[in-house]
């Protein structure tokens, strides 16, 4: 799993385990998924379910 607990990019809430989340992510340049964890931590923006609902 990720080393740090991801937080919602909008409200700052820590993402709970097993919570459904949304990640905004640029597709990696190299097109592979081998380093996806590191990539998620560096590039990913997490949103909790509630914030996504608010936006829609
Ligand atoms: Zn949120």
When the domains are counted, the total is: 1
Radius of gyration: 12 Å
- The share of residues in helices is 25-40%
Q: Tell the overall outline.
A: globular
What is the SS-derived class? alpha+beta
Q: What is the β-strand count?
A: 2
Percent in strands: 5-15%
Helix and strand element order: EHEH
Taking strands numbered 1, 2, ... along the chain, how are they ordered across the largest sheet? 1-2
The pLDDT mean sits at 82
Low-confidence stretches: none
Q: Count the helices. How many? A: 2
Give a list of the ligands: zinc ion
Distance between the termini: 29 Å
- Main beta-sheet strand count, sense and barrel state: 2 strands, antiparallel
Report what the structure shows.
It is built from 2 helices and 2 strands. The protein has 56 residues and is α+β, with helices and mostly antiparallel strands. It has a two-stranded antiparallel sheet. The longest helix has 8 residues, at 36-43. The termini are far apart. The chain binds zinc ion. Residues 8, 10-11, 13, 47-48, 50-51 line the site of zinc ion. This is Fe3+ hydroxamate ABC transporter substrate-binding protein.
Summary, kept brief:
It contains 2 helices and 2 strands. By secondary structure, it is α+β, with helices and mostly antiparallel strands.
Provide tags for this entry.
56 residues, alpha+beta, two-stranded antiparallel sheet, 14% strand, Fe3+ hydroxamate ABC transporter substrate-binding protein
How is the secondary structure organized here?
Layout lengths: L20 E4 L11 H8 L1 E4 H7 L1
Antiparallel strand pairs: 1-2
The chain binds zinc ion (ZN).
């Amino acid at each position: 799993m990720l080393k740090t607990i991801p937080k919602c990019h909008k409200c700052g809430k820590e993402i709970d385990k097993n919570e459904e989340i949304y990640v905004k992510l640029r597709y990696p340049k190299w097109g592979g998924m081998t380093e996806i964890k590191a990539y998620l931590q560096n590039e990913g923006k997490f949103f909790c379910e509630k914030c996504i609902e608010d936006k829609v």
